[in-house]
Structure formats: structure tokens, C-alpha cells
């Protein structure tokens, strides 16, 4: 739920999308306006900025107040203040929401934003900039969330499951890494500071599974309170832990029921000295309704959650001691325990790597981020529960691929236990690349889960980037008398951007050498792609295809490649598509051609998606820090015995990659 972070990883995700959804974040885009709140109307002309009212002095939780306030509650937050927890749906327009808040200077809200709340279009960037101003002015308070939703009590020690209200039948080999909890909080806090330019005051805790020791780690970062999932009727305050836990009230459905509830509950606080809340709302328009129900809007005051002194809460706010959670959804099942065992193998390997004297800080950081991805609570919740109506096998593959990534980053062999996965003594997860000829059909298979470029690339931030979205599995060439059909099969082909061909993310490029004559063609890629092909593989034709169509280019000596056709392309299965080339456009026998097949990401605006040091909604992560753009190739089809990691890894030595071609012979 950390909108400025990405990171992804909030369902049992997308491997390193899951993978690095978990640990990898992006900074906020767009400059902060110099003063006031800019409005961005539909005509695009920003009017003169409006001056913000001075923010109220914050009153820390636990009743303590800053010295400069003289120990008193600020005058503009008098009795009757209500704390609102705004939890917008994922499809909320960020700019429209920010403008609503800007138009109501008296409104002050604490916000928990969903993943990918801010996109990468102009509207989202303007909305982000406006929210940054609202935060800096004290009108909006953002709540920090933890990407990947880790189950912190069990990361600290799986033996904590012994206290579960649903005792597990068996426990895995002990996993106890409290420093991982600290590391994940630190990573989320850095991303929060980078995004909002302030320290987080509170954190949203995932899964409603809190034991207590993890809150001591949270308190070390000067985080003063935490929020749990909402509850019907009255809000609750859990006391007696390192930080107080708020459980927001959830109003009942139906306008009439909400009105009656508000008048009896939070609005009754307007005539008292008490603070009421927090109360959860999904739409900001709800605040306008409350003002109309209050009768006298001037007597209705809104407070940030950090301004609620716990010793002045309304009697309607239920105070309760900590309760023991039920850990059984994440541990105790055979598959769940096996996952904890495999996670422990990878985590110990990283610790050994750290103590080996061979670990540089960047490699160690990347390896730990992959571990954090594998620690996603979504994985363990899914194991043994037939996740998402039959996606159990996919979730397992994603989890195992994330563990594989840990060892790939460290340049260490993947242990047999992890290669065996959930079936002890079973087969390795990754399939071997191979070629086969069936009549006139030519088929190449590419290893699974290698859509990581040179091995250290991470998926863009965001849960929409499903695991396998760039993972080429099969490339086929099927000629007949009239056409040549090129077929591509991937690990997954989601379509959240509604591309007309039914898939959004991969940009596939096929370079075709039809004559096998050294130098009789181009050795360069299409414009904008750094790299070369071998002299003997110089190409005459290049095909590009993404979810918006296919284009065929022809090499022209001394000039840019010439577009010659837009061949027919279509999705042929849940994770496959094909392009049909008329035979008249090319000459020769496809069985004798050479093929250079690359998979890039398609940027939202078209063209190759870049690779940055950190992943973001519009870029991959994992690039080396240098003045040379990282190769944009996420997956390659390479001949047997040729390492994709080695082909693309030459970038670290300052070289551009040389693409090997595959041939039927």
C-alpha cells in the first residue's frame, strides 16, 4: 500500500515483481510548488497559487505536546476534533483527490494510499506534486506501509507461532532474523522520506497479526503509532505495547445508516472536549456529507491522527489490551513449513556471503532485497490454500524464482534443495533451453525465470507486473507456401493497459539473417538499442511486436532501417501470440535463417522501457551506476551453452552486448 514506493511485491505476486515489489521503491516525481497549492484545471493552465492556512501544531500521541505549545492542545484543534483515515480505492484519480482537499482548507486527513496510486502520466505527476504540498503544509499526513506485507512476528522468530490462537500442527526449522524486520522498516522509511520529505509518524501494519516484539523495532525509528485494519462501529485503541495501535472505525453501508451512525458517534464529539477516531473513509466527499449532517460546519474540526492525545479520546473509543493473533494461515501446513525451510536456506547463504570477505555492499544490498521479496506475507498465506482459485503452482514458481534470484545475484550455485522446490528430490525449477524440429516446425525453448537481464534486473514497481510477463519460454517458426508464422510463448501475458492485441508489457524484437553472409546486412540493433550482432549474423530484416501491433523493417545500407509492412499479429492463448509474415516479403528458406530474439519492456508511452538503479512504475531496476544506459534487454533467446547473464553482463566492463543468433542447424 505504499503508493510512492512501488515495491512491490502485495499479492503473491510477480516473482521479482513480487521480488522487487518488496524492496524497491521510487522517489516522487515532479517539483514541489514554491508556495500555495496549484490548481490544474482541464485546460492545463495553472492559475495563481492559493495561500495555505498555517498548519496546526502537532500533538504527539500518548498525550505529550511540543514544548513550544505550552503543553496545550492547539487552539484550532479544540474539543470535538475528528481524525479521519482516508483509504482511497486503487482507481482514484490522484489529481482530482488532491484538488478536492485543496478546495477545502479546513479538511485535514491521514492517508493510507494503495500501491500504484500515482501513475507515470502527466495527471498523476501533477497530483503527486500537489499532494507533496499538502503534506508539507500539514494538511495531509501520509501513513507508511511495508511493501510485500511481511509477517513480522514470524520473521523475528517462527517459534512465535507457538503462541498462536490456532496452534500449528508442526513447525519448520527455526527461522529467526529480527534484523530483517529492522531492514525492511528502514528500507520503507527511506522510501517514505524520499517521497514525502518528512519522517513517517505512523505505519500501517499488515495482516492484523501483531505480537509485540516487532513494535519495539518500529519504535526505534521514532514511529509513534500504528494502524490496524478497520472495525465496524466504534474505533479501538490497543494499549500496552511499544507503540499504541489504532483500529479505525468503519461506517456502515448506506447513506441513511452512515448519517445516523455519524450523528450518534463522531459528530456527538463536537460538543465535548473529546477527540474521536480514527474513522475510515474511502471517498473524500464523505467529509462534505458529515459537514452537512453537523448542522454547523464551523464547529466541526478535523485532526490528523498524530494530533490525537490518547488521554483525551472520546469514551466511545474502545480501549483494549493486546490480543494474541492466529498465525496458522502462514505456518504449520506442509507447504508453508517447506517454504520457511527454503527461505532459511537462502537467508543463511546471504549471511555466509556477507561474512565471506567477498561481498561488496551493492551486491549484498541486492541480495537482501531479493530475500525481503521472498519474505512477502502473501506467499506464505497462499501456500497450502490453493491461492487465487488455482494459482497455487504459479505462486510456488514465483517464490522459488525469487530464491533463485538471491543466488544469481551473489553469483553462487543454487542449492539442490531450492532447485527441488516443494517436492523433495523433485526436478529443478528451471527448464533447459533446447531446439527441436518437427517436420517444418522449428521450436526453441528458453529457460524459465530468466527474465532478469544479466541476472540482477528487477521488475518495475507495481503489482500489475505479473511474474513471467517478460519471460520468453518458446519461440517457434512455422513456414508454409504462403506465410511464415512466428509464435512466442511467455510465462504470463497480462493486459492491464488494455492493448488491442491482449497483452501490455513485452516488446519483442526478432533480427533475421536470411543469407548467412558475413557483413551482408546490419550489425547494429534498431535505433535506440545499444549493442551489436556478430559479423556472421548481420541481419537483413527486423521484426518488432508489442500489444499494439507488429512492424517489419528492412536493412538499408547507409540509411536507417525502412519500415516495409505491418504484419498481422494476434494473441493465440493465455500466454502466447503470433505474427504472420507473407512469404513474398522475405526470400530463402526459414530453416536456414538465423534469428536474434530479444525481449524488452514496452514503456507506457511506447518504445523500450529503461532500466534504472531502482525500479519504478515505468522502469526496471538493478542497473549499475554509470554514465552508460543499462542494456534494455530483459530476456534473450540464446543458443544452448551460451549464458544470457554473460552476454548482457559485459555492460559492467563498459562494453555493449553482442547478441548471439540461434539457427536450426
What descriptive keywords fit this protein?
single chain, 665 residues, alpha/beta, TIM Barrel, Immunoglobulin-like, 3 domains, seven-stranded antiparallel sheet, six-stranded antiparallel sheet, 15 helices, 27 strands, 24% helix
Mind explaining what this structure looks like?
The protein folds into three domains: 1-30 and 331-426, no CATH class; 77-144 and 200-320, TIM Barrel (Alpha-Beta Barrel); 434-663, Immunoglobulin-like (Sandwich), CATH 2.60.40. It is 24% helix and 18% strand. The strands form six sheets. Strands 17, 19, 20, 21, 24, 25 and 27 form a seven-stranded antiparallel beta sheet that branches. The radius of gyration is 28 Å and the shape is globular. The two termini are 51 Å apart.
How would you summarize what this structure contains?
With 665 residues, the chain is an alpha/beta fold. The protein has 3 domains: 1-30 and 331-426, no CATH class; 77-144 and 200-320, Alpha-Beta Barrel (TIM Barrel), CATH 3.20.20; 434-663, Sandwich (Immunoglobulin-like), CATH 2.60.40.
Amino acid at each position: 500500500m505504499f503508493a510512492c514506493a512501488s515495491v512491490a511485491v502485495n499479492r503473491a505476486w510477480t516473482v521479482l515483481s513480487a521480488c522487487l515489489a518488496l524492496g524497491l521503491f521510487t522517489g516522487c516525481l515532479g517539483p514541489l510548488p514554491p508556495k500555495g497549492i496549484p490548481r490544474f484545471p482541464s485546460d492545463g493552465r495553472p492559475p495563481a497559487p492559493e495561500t495555505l492556512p498555517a498548519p496546526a501544531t502537532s500533538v504527539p500521541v500518548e498525550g505529550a505536546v511540543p514544548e513550544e505549545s505550552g503543553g496545550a492542545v492547539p487552539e484550532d484543534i479544540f474539543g470535538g476534533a475528528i481524525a479521519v483515515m482516508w483509504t482511497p480505492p486503487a482507481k482514484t484519480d490522484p489529481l482530482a483527490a488532491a484538488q478536492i482537499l485543496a478546495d477545502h482548507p479546513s479538511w485535514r486527513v491521514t492517508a493510507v494510499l494503495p500501491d500504484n496510486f500515482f501513475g507515470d502520466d502527466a495527471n498523476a505527476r501533477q497530483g503527486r506534486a500537489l499532494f507533496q504540498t499538502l503534506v508539507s503544509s500539514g494538511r495531509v499526513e501520509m501513513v507508511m506501509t511495508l511493501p510485500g506485507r511481511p509477517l513480522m512476528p514470524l520473521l523475528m522468530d517462527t517459534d512465535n507461532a507457538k503462541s498462536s490462537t490456532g496452534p500449528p500442527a508442526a513447525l519448520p526449522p527455526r527461522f529467526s532474523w529480527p534484523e530483517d524486520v529492522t531492514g525492511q522498516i528502514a528500507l520503507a522509511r527511506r522510501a517514505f522520506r524520499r517521497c514525502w520529505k518528512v519522517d513517517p509518524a505512523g505505519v500501517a501494519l499488515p495482516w492484523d497479526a501483531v505480537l509485540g516484539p516487532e513494535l519495539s523495532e518500529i519504535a526505534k525509528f521514532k514511529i509513534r503509532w500504528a494502524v490496524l485494519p478497520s472495525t465496524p462501529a466504534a474505533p479501538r485503541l490497543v494499549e500496552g505495547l511499544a507503540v499504541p495501535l489504532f483500529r479505525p472505525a468503519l461506517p456502515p453501508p448506506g447513506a441513511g445508516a452512515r448519517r445516523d451512525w455519524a450523528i450518534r458517534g463522531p459528530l456527538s464529539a463536537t460538543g465535548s472536549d473529546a477527540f474521536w477516531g480514527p474513522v475510515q473513509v474511502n471517498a473524500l466527499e464523505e467529509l462534505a456529507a458529515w459537514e452537512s449532517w453537523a448542522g454547523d460546519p464551523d464547529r466541526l474540526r478535523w485532526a490528523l491522527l498524530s494530533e490525537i492525545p490518547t488521554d483525551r479520546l472520546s469514551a466511545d473509543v474502545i480501549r483494549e489490551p493486546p490480543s494474541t493473533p492466529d498465525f496458522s494461515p502462514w505456518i504449520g501446513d506442509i507447504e508453508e513449513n517447506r517454504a520457511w525451510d527454503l527461505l532459511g536456506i537462502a537467508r543463511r547463504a546471504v549471511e555466509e556471503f556477507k561474512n565471506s570477505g567477498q561481498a561488496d555492499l551493492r551486491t549484498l544490498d541486492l541480495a537482501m532485497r531479493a530475500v525481503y521479496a521472498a519474505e512477502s506475507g502473501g506467499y506464505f498465506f497462499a501456500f497450502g490454500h490453493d491461492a487465487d482459485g488455482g494459482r497455487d503452482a504459479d505462486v510456488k514458481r514465483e517464490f522459488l524464482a525469487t530464491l533463485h534470484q538471491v543466488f544469481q545475484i551473489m553469483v553462487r550455485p543454487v542449492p539442490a534443495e531450492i532447485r527441488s522446490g516443494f517436492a523433495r528430490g523433485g526436478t529443478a525449477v528451471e527448464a533447459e533451453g533446447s531446439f527441436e524440429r518437427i517436420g517444418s516446425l522449428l521450436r526453441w525453448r528458453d529457460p524459465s525465470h530468466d527474465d532478469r537481464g544479466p541476472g540482477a534486473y528487477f521488475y518495475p514497481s507495481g503489482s500489475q507486473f505479473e511474474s513471467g510477463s517478460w519471460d520468453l519460454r518458446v519461440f517457434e517458426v512455422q513456414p508454409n507456401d504462403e506465410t511464415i508464422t512466428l509464435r512466442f510463448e511467455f510465462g504470463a501475458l497480462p493486459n492491464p493497459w488494455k492493448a488491442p492485441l491482449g497483452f501490455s508489457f513485452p516488446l519483442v524484437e526478432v533480427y533475421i539473417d536470411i543469407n548467412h553472409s558475413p557483413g551482408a546486412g546490419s550489425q547494429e540493433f534498431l535505433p535506440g538499442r545499444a549493442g551489436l550482432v556478430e559479423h556472421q549474423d548481420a541481419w537483413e530484416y527486423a521484426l518488432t511486436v508489442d500489444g499494439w501491433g507488429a512492424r517489419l523493417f528492412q536493412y538499408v545500407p547507409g540509411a536507417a532501417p525502412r519500415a516495409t509492412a505491418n504484419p498481422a499479429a494476434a494473441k493465440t492463448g493465455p500466454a502466447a501470440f503470433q505474427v504472420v509474415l507473407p512469404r513474398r516479403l522475405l526470400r530463402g528458406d526459414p530453416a536456414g535463417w538465423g534469428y536474434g530474439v530479444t525481449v524488452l519492456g514496452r514503456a507506457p508511452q511506447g518504445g523500450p522501457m529503461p532500466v534504472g538503479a531502482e525500479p519504478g512504475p515505468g522502469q526496471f531496476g538493478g542497473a549499475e551506476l554509470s554514465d552508460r544506459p543499462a542494456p534494455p534487454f530483459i530476456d534473450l533467446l540464446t543458443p544452448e551453452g551460451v549464458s544470457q547473464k554473460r552476454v548482457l553482463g559485459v555492460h559492467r566492463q563498459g562494453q555493449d552486448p553482442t547478441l548471439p543468433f540461434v539457427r536450426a542447424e
